[in-house]
Amino acid sequence: MIVDTNREVNPRRGWRRAGQVTGVALALALTIAGCSSGTKTSSSPSTNPPTTSPSQSSSITASGGPPTEEQACGTKPVTMQAYVETGFPDVIDLMHLFTKQYPNVTWNIRQDQFAVLTQNAPLVLSGPNPPDIMRLPQLSGLVHDHLLKNLDSYYDAYGWSSFPSAQLAQLRMPPSGHPRGSGSLWAMGLNYSLTGVFYNKTLAAKIGMTSPPKTLAEFDALLAKAKAAGLTPIVQFNGGATGGLLFPLQQLMADYGPTDAINNWIFQKPGATIDTPSNLEAVKHLKQWIDNGYFNSDANATDYAKMMSKFEHGEGVFMFDGDWESGNLDKLMPGQVGFFLMPPLKEGDKYAAMSAPLTYGIAATAKHADCAAFFFNWVATNPDARQMNVEVGGSNPGGPPNLPIPVKEGTLVAQTLAAGKIIAQENTAMDFIANATGAIYAQAWTPEVQKLFAGQESPEGVLQKVQAAYEQEIKSGA
Hints:
- The two termini are 37 Å apart.
- 39% of the residues lie in helices and 12% in strands.
- It is globular, with a radius of gyration of 21 Å.
- The protein has 2 domains: 2-193 and 355-426, Periplasmic binding protein-like II (D-Maltodextrin-Binding Protein, domain 2); 195-352 and 433-475, D-Maltodextrin-Binding Protein, domain 2, CATH 3.40.190.
- Mean pLDDT is 86; it is low at 4-57.
- By secondary structure, the chain is α/β, with parallel strands linked by helices.
- The strands form 2 sheets. Strands 1, 2, 3, 4, 7, 8, 9, 10 and 11 form a 9-stranded mixed beta sheet that branches. The chain has a two-stranded antiparallel ribbon with strand order 5-6.
- The protein has helices at residues 69-73, 89-101, 114-125, 140-144, 152-158, 165-169, 201-206, 216-228, 246-256, 259-266, 277-291, 304-312, 326-332, 369-381, 383-393, 412-426, 440-453, 459-475; strands at residues 2-4, 78-85, 105-112, 133-135, 172-173, 184-185, 188-200, 318-322, 337-340, 353-361, 429-430.
């Protein structure tokens, strides 16, 4: 049985935020997210290492092979506390499947949109009844405040050294929380995805698009044709607490400059800045799209669910989004949607994409940490779980590279997974710029791109104000 404390949620997947990605070549396609709200906790975050009782300590060791479910979860009834992101049915479906295979484990699930998770994470994790498993919008501050369980012992016990190193390096950092990319393991990805551009095949044909654009200039030309034809070139969300224009903006940043510099900023590397000449060119290009009327005019009043509804009803030619929608679109618009990676500035340049894990962690004082870790391993290695991740989530399930990825040829899911292989080969995966600090997304990026869209902010102002907020948060240990 699964108890869901937030039933009234959007059935579609929320936009997924990219987690932590290093510049190491990815051995597989690596995600970006959220929409709806639940209840909030009001306890204060702790800045001291929590006291862990013997019952909460890990009993899992690396001896005798990987732990069994009985060893990790016990034989008596166990109710796992889970705090997940609204709009991700695959995660809840995986929990259903886990209970079907292991009936003694049931779930009490709470759901919230991404922005609320960002605000609530320190409070919830430091509270009297923290979740065993929680969606983590950002790791650094939580690790710094000793609110997450170190997963190194599980890494040894389950043999996660067989996973591609880059797959887990994204979730590693020292106890100080930064820089990211090395150190102890603090979280796991329940799947791995990437972003790009979806397009309506029927509308694309009307503007003469016979194949995906190979350069940014070709894409610009298609947008101009769509506008001239009376179509909405790009349907995008940018309303409320979710700045969806960051999707095309970061893709433009990767066109005008190197992805390593973007990741260095997100990883809080010394001296890194978002306020660079190449990024300024990217913001100016985005502003030109805005001024040309290439986005839906109500973008600042459009949330993620409304964007998806618009696209599904043929109200936009293109949409910047992630592969987590591919399974959904295969069902709702079979054969009608295509996907391509953002074209580079010049033909022959490398493609790039935001690409990272759907990050989940375990509270430092979780009552069922061992069972949570078993669940993480099961998601990555169980054949049924892997198939569900692909079919429902449209995402790469990760795990050992020798395990098959079940996908039906000719589907949109197959297209997005193939795009992920290109990013892996090009070594151009980026974390999401909203992940740089705990509050940078809600308090800086979102209001700045909303003001840019409304004509109330300049491209220079966007980068200057975001960088100032970033530096202030780093000083405060975010």
